[in-house]
Design a protein that fits this description.
The complex is a heterodimer of chains A (262) and B (254). Chain A is mostly helical and 262 residues long. Chain A is built from ten helices and no strands. Chain A is globular and about 75 Å long. Chain A starts with a helix and ends with a helix. Classes of the chains: A mainly alpha (262), B alpha/beta (254). At the A-B interface, helix 2, helix 4 and helix 9 of A face helix 1, strand 2, helix 7 and helix 8 of B.
């Protein structure tokens, strides 16, 4: 199949699969809640609410995972810089982010950040809804962990590669971009994937700022029905499903990168 | 966790007082923002159609209508509602806050919009009165006035705190708790919702309390408007009608 045909086809399949997954999830959940003794109306709304919560969880994970990747690559490179004014801010960011709990970071992004930004940006409180506050906290959190992974990956490339590139007359920036990073990124894919899977589970902490993702939509159903066992069972199963879907995609990616590397 | 919230509260209080809107500013915008929890049936919760409903939601809407404003509902975690009130995220909070000295230091309460009490819930044959609780394990929801009340009853073996009332109920059913202390309306709703009439019994009132709406500290104009609107609704029968709809009785303080 030609390339120009394959790209839109794969994209269409992905988008269709995405919406299909959550529509199916809603139906399955409704059946499950009916079986566990919920009333028909409650089962339907609980199924729909939890499917929506699952979609918010996945979407939040994907966008903050992507942002965290960009942050991580730059912070990881900057940490290895020989210039102190590049290295120190990156080290500081990684130190603070890895040294404080994500729960506190999420609470901080929602409750304190708008007030601190207020002098510069008066609308911060309106803009930083629970969703965007969670996005900021999660992407900066995963970014710091990614940075350490990227740093380890760069340091894993033998010194001879640098020397060879320099002897060919490449500048340090070009060496990084064309020689080191392509090799390093292949090494760091498995640990980066690990971080994204952890991120998906960590996103449940966003429920403390009342973002209606999967965990909170479950809690809301519990507070109206007083049935923690049935609902938490479903919540856990959906997280497992989402992480499984995510890892099966990234496994595919890893395989591709490996064959391309040989 | 508690300490973190406290820290954020202090931080918030210091910088945020200016953001709280007065009645004039609210009237100019045409919308009044109301904070609630959305997880406390039958007062404020998400129903079968996933809509925010309940006694306090109906009451809040009636008050907004009385003031000629459009209500905008914002749901947040119970233990951070009063913090965010002082940050100006909403104009007032209606979320079944019992009036306590501690809370009255942080926010200003309106006149009470209903009266309730904490009851002892246990399995049939279990403790029914405060005296029966000697040497027993009791469960309560964290951060509530029931938690404080339970801790004051002498002779209790242990008071376990839970994030949410349903978790305490679950432990009561599985035998890890001898009793669960909660709001009498919550107990009624839980027993009805899970059809536990033959398993559980509701014992005596442990304490009574007045429940009120809250506005940010010092926001007098909004406080007065809310008090006026509430007393109007109580006089013209709207309040009685809403209360009958949810409880079959008039729950105003006598």
């Amino acid at each position: 199949m030609p390339f120009w045909l394959r790209v839109p086809l794969v994209l269409a399949l992905l988008i269709g699969g995405y919406f299909g997954l959550f529509a199916l999830l809603g139906v399955v959940l409704e059946r499950y809640f009916l079986l566990t003794g919920f009333g028909p109306d409650r089962a339907a709304s609980a199924g729909a609410a939890m499917a929506l919560g699952a979609e918010i969880t996945l979407k939040l994970t994907l966008i903050s995972g992507l942002a965290g990747l960009v942050i991580g690559v730059f912070a990881g490179m900057f940490r290895l810089s020989r210039r102190a004014w590049v290295r120190l801010p990156a080290s500081f960011y990684i130190w603070v982010t890895r040294g404080t709990p994500l729960l506190v970071q999420i609470l901080f992004a929602y409750n304190a950040l708008p007030l601190l930004l207020k002098p510069l940006w008066p609308e911060a409180q309106q803009v930083l809804t629970p969703y965007w506050a969670a996005f900021i906290a999660l992407s900066f959190n995963v970014g710091a962990y990614n940075a350490e992974v990227v740093r380890a990956g760069i340091q894993a490339i033998p010194k001879g590669q640098w020397e060879a590139a320099w002897s060919l007359g490449l500048s340090p920036a070009d060496t990084m971009r064309f020689v080191i990073l392509p090799q390093a990124l292949r090494i760091v894919v498995p640990p980066l994937v690990n971080n994204v899977v952890a991120l998906l589970k960590d996103s449940s902490l966003a429920s403390v700022i009342a973002l209606t993702e999967l965990a909170l939509s479950g809690q809301r159903i519990i507070s109206a029905t007083f049935r923690p066992v049935e609902v938490y069972l479903a919540v856990a199963a959906i997280y497992l499903l989402l992480t499984t879907v995510l890892t099966s995609f990234t496994n595919l990616l890893e395989k591709r990168l490996q064959t391309a590397g040989r | 966790m508690k300490r973190v919230l406290l820290l954020l509260a202090v931080l918030g209080l210091a910088v945020a007082l200016a953001q709280v809107r007065s009645l004039d500013q609210i009237k100019r915008s045409g919308e009044i923002r109301i904070g609630t929890e959305g997880a406390f049936p039958p007062f404020n919760y998400f129903d079968e159609k996933n809509q925010l409903v309940g006694f306090e939601i109906d009451l809040g809407n009636a008050i907004a209508k009385r003031l000629g404003l459009k209500p905008v509902w914002i749901t947040q975690a119970f233990d951070s509602l009063l913090i965010q009130l002082n940050q100006g995220r909403f104009d007032f909070v209606i979320a079944s806050h019992g009036i306590t000295e501690e809370r009255a230091k942080a926010v200003d309460f309106t006149n009470p919009h209903y009266c309730t009490g904490g009851v002892i819930v246990s399995k049939k044959g279990g403790p029914k009165t405060a005296k029966d609780l000697q040497g027993k394990v009791v469960g309560v929801q964290i951060g509530t006035t029931y938690m404080e009340a339970a801790q004051k009853i002498p002779g209790i073996k242990q008071v376990r705190t839970y994030q949410k009332d349903p978790d305490a109920l679950q432990d009561l059913l599985s035998g890890r708790l001898d009793a669960w202390i909660t709001d009498r309306f919550v107990a009624k709703e839980a027993i009805k919702e899970r059809k536990l009439e033959n398993t559980l019994q509701v014992g005596e009132l442990v304490f009574q309390e007045k429940v009120a709406m809250a506005v940010a500290k010092g926001n007098k104009s909004v406080l007065q408007a809310l008090n006026q609107a509430l007393s109007d609704l109580m006089k013209d029968g709207t309040y009685a009608q809403i209360s009958k709809k949810w409880f079959g009785e008039d729950v105003r303080c006598k």
